[in-house]
Each structure stands twice: as C-alpha cells, then as structure tokens.
Write a structure and sequence with these properties.
The chain is of the alpha+beta class. Helices cover 36% and strands 23% of the residues. The protein has eight helices and twelve strands. β7 and β8 form a beta hairpin. The strands form two sheets. Strands 1, 2, 3, 4, 6, 9 and 12 form a seven-stranded antiparallel beta sheet that branches. It has a five-stranded antiparallel beta sheet with strand order 5-11-7-8-10, with no helix packed on it.
C-alpha cells in the first residue's frame, strides 16, 4: 500500500511539474522570429483583482480575455500563478481592446491617472518597472490606438523603475522573479462607459529582433548605394579609361568603407564588375593606346644631331627693334666723323 501511495505521489508531482514547465515554455513565432514567454494568459480572473471579469467570447488567444469598465478606482491587480524568469527577454507585449480610443485622450489631458506595472516584490509600487498608459497611445507599428483590438509592445528599457518605499520590500526590480502585474485607471468620478480588455500578456525578445532588423536594413541600404555606383560605371575603352578613373576609384572607396556585414550584401556580380573595370584601366595605363605613345624628339632631323637653335631666325620684333637702333647709331657716328674731318680741313686752308 505504501508503495502504491509513493508511486501515485511521484506521478502527481511529475504531472504538476510538467504543467508548470509547460506553462512557462518559450514559444518562437516562425514568421517574425520573436520568442516569448507567458506572463499571464488572461483565461481566468487573477487573485487580488477587484475589477476584472472573464470574457470567454472575445479573446486573441486561449480561452478568454479579461474585461473591465473604466471608472473611478479601478485597481486591476494580477498576482501571477507562478514566478516568471524574464532574464532573456527585453519587451512586454500584450493585446489591448478599447471600445473608444478617446480613452487615451483622457489620459493625455490629465483627467485620469493610469499605469501598467510589473514587479518582483509580490506587491505594487515596490521593485517595479512601469509605464503611464498615455505613453502607449501608439501600438507596435507606430499607429494610433483604434477601437477594437490593438497589439501593444513596450520595450523594457522605456519603462520607469522604482525600488519602492516599503522597507521590507524595497529594492531594485528583479527581472528573474516577476510575480505581480497591476493595470490601473483611476481619477474619474463616474463610469466613462469605455470597456477595456487585455489578453496574452507575455515577455519577448522583440526589441532585440527589431534592432537586428533595423541594423540589417541599414546594411542593405549602404550596400545598395555601392551597387548603384558600380552599375553606373560605363564599359572601359581606349577613349574613356582616363575619364573613368575618378568614378571607379570613388566606387572602390565606397565599397572599402563598408563594414563586413554590409559588404556581404554587395552582390558578386557588382564586385566582379568593379574588379574587372579596375584591371582594365590598369592595363591601359601600363600600355597606353598607340595614339598616346610619346613623340620621337628627333623626328625630322636628317643629321641625327640635336638642333642647338643656332640656325633659328630671331623673331621679327628683334629685327626691327634693338637691331635697327644699333644700325642707326652707327650711321650717325659716321656722319659726325665726316663732319669733323671737313671742319679740320677748312681750318688748315685758312
């Protein structure tokens, strides 16, 4: 009998452990690559809540969602059925239904105080991170909240953190021991008539995936710009290889400046074209076309000796310039000498 009871006890413990592990098993979305772990599936009314009711008719997953009417003093506590280790996750995700999107205008105008808190203390306002609900007026795609269901994504690094004031619970938020959520809207004196529902609260690595996608997009964009530069390069010929050198060098510099990740997005065809173009320009530079060969300086000299310029005629302005002045000066001297000779002869005769 004792053996039977022992076996039954082991089975019960095994089953309960299996259920607990299954409840916290991470799930990866094949389409987005985002991995998430449940915080609360919202299928049952959580302990500690004074406002939620279960809505089995309208939900986004599981068996039900949690619903409440927005009015004064709505404190919606959720004590999680088990502690969740969110160490590997960076984002809080959940589905939010609103019957009137004007609800968020009330938050923004200060007519209501609202918040979403997750804590590791088992109680609100201690060891927590939180968001004002006015901050989630836009959903994960940057779109305005609409009437009906919205997918909300809140990166944990956008939250406010508080250690709390309770000396027995005070301390930093411990992401490895999440055990309590509060979703509250207070301040209105009467019922607003607005219905809110929440479902599928979970932690995910959405922010890391999104950042990786943003980086990949930047790498692809940089690579596309380089590919475009290369594709614009004309075919190299004897006539244009000199004019293409600057353009080809610029394309090479643009490629070399890319990081290794961005370089991986430059197509092999583009890189082949760049390398082929560079090689062809180098070949023309090493062996210029015939019409660009250096001219023979002795061409036309039948003696084979360099022309020293002695047989060159001076420019025309030299013939009529200084040379003419010297000739006139000589004639003047001769005239003066002759006149002096005549004067001397005359004196002798006298």
């Amino acid at each position: 009998m004792k053996k039977v009871l022992s076996v039954l006890l082991i089975l019960v413990l095994t089953l309960s452990l299996s259920v607990s592990v299954f409840a916290s098993e991470p799930v990866t979305d094949e389409e987005t690559g985002v991995t998430s772990i449940p915080l609360f599936n919202c299928d049952t009314k959580p302990s500690g809540s004074n406002a939620y009711s279960v809505d089995a008719e309208d939900k986004t997953e599981g068996e039900a969602s949690l619903k409440f009417n927005v009015a004064a003093g709505q404190i919606n506590n959720m004590r999680l059925p088990e502690t969740v280790d969110g160490t590997d996750y960076d984002t809080l995700e959940f589905d939010l239904y609103v019957s009137d999107a004007a609800l968020f205008d009330l938050f923004a105008q200060g007519g209501m105080n609202s918040g979403l808190e997750i804590t590791s203390s088992g109680k609100e306002d201690n060891q927590e991170i939180s968001w004002n609900l006015a901050a989630i007026k836009k959903n994960n795609q940057g779109e305005e909240i609409v009437e009906g269901w919205n997918h909300i994504i809140l990166p944990l690094n956008t939250a406010n953190e508080s250690q709390g004031k309770d000396e027995t619970l005070k301390g930093p938020f411990d992401i490895s021991s999440i055990n309590f959520i509060r979703f509250f809207m207070v301040g209105e004196k009467t019922n607003t008539g607005i219905v809110v529902k929440i479902d599928n609260m979970r932690l995910s690595d959405w922010n890391a995936i999104a950042e990786a996608e943003r980086q990949e997009a930047l790498y692809r964009e940089a690579a596309e710009k380089v590919i475009e530069k290369i594709e614009k390069i004309e075919e190299v010929t004897e006539e244009n290889y000199k004019s293409l050198r600057t353009e080809v060098a610029a394309a090479r510099r643009a490629y070399d400046r890319l990081g290794n990740k961005a370089k991986s997005y430059v197509t092999r065809a583009a890189l082949d074209k760049l390398e082929f173009t560079e090689a062809k320009i180098a070949a023309f530079e090493a062996n210029p076309p015939a019409d660009e060969q250096p001219k023979d300086e002795t061409n036309g000299d039948t003696t084979g000796e360099e022309n020293d310029g002695s047989d060159e005629q001076p420019p025309e302005d030299e013939k009529t310039g200084c040379g003419a002045s010297v000739a006139l000066g000589g004639i003047a001297m001769i005239v003066m000498a002759l006149s002096l000779g005549v004067t001397v002869l005359n004196k002798k005769k006298g």
